Amino acid sequence: MNIRRRLMVLYVLITACHGDFNGEWKATVVKHIDALVNSCVVLPCSFSHPKEQLPSSRLRGIWHHQAQHNQRIYHKDQTNVLPNFRDRTRLLGHLGQGNCSLEMTQIKDYDNGPFCFRIELAATEGDIDHPDKFSFVEDCVQLKMLPDPPKPTLSYANTANESRPYTVVCSVTYTCPTHAPLLTWSMGNAHDVTTVIKEIHAGFWEVQSILIIVPEAKDDHNDVTCTATFYGGMSSSDKFTLFVKRTKNHHHIIIPTVVAVGIIVLFGGLCIAMATKYKRRIAELQDQYSLRNRLSRLSRRWPRDNMVELKHLPNTSTSGAGQKCWKPHLPCPKSQPTSFNYKPDISDADDYENTADLNVYGNL
Description:
- With 364 residues, this protein is α+β, with helices and mostly antiparallel strands.
- It has two helices and 20 strands.
- The chain has helices at residues 2-21, 251-305; strands spanning 26-29, 32-36, 40-43, 45-48, 59-65, 72-74, 89-91, 102-105, 115-121, 133-135, 142-146, 153-156, 160-161, 166-174, 182-185, 193-201, 204-213, 222-229, 235-242, 244-245.
- The strands form seven sheets. A four-stranded antiparallel beta sheet has the order 6-5-9-10, with no helix packed on it. Strands 12-14-17-16 form a four-stranded antiparallel beta sheet, with no helix packed on it.
- The N and C termini lie far apart (197 Å).
């Protein structure tokens, strides 16, 4: 029984020693990451240790330069931090959960590192002389300084259809998830925009702004601009020209047709009115011409046909020097021969009351 118990104790000790010697003090970091000058960056970090799970109060996290442990860029006590890093760094998450991520703000162009994480465990009664302290100098972070912000990328269809929803996606990458860039549009309203944030891979994030608009004909050939504003005030933008395809409808057929019909009706009415007027005028002219022809024929017939000898008409001459004939439209007897015989035409019998032989002028 004692032998069995001794074997179990020996197995536990060997396992513990094997864990300590095989580096169960581990740190996982992103060894290369972009950092925008004057903005911020988050250095993702996680760690593990061979001890049992400890509360954060028993753990102390430190970030320092790789070459010198005493050149600290983060410490809980700000007096132990380099002057140019004070109030610019802070730990994210909880050390008790193995999160050692570091946020760095107001990035300077010389903040390139490399930076390493160090963990210190508070001493207990059993290991006062040997407190646990470990620096992960082989897992450090090197920063790539970006003087200008990254440019957003636009995804869109080449042509938009009028009065139909049209989607444009604007995306930009960044390395500071605590302060995501703000994406704004040159057109559209806030309720037309949806924002999506996702992690591309460790340390690199992407924010997407999805714009849904219903373009009109007036939006054709207008520029659509997406602007990314980063923490610290720096910004970048990209744009494209919107081409709107007119929707086929009956308006472009009905309106010209109505206009054409209206013009035809208007000119048709004018033509009919003018034709009617000219027909009436022509008819009047024809009537006048016919009447004139009749009068002309009558005027030609009166001297021949109406110069008849009147026997039964009373003597209308007056005594005196100026004798005149009373009958109108007939030649005066003083200017004509004294008498002549006239035999009326049979067709004029009614005009002369069926008189067969009239002596118009007689022997005066």
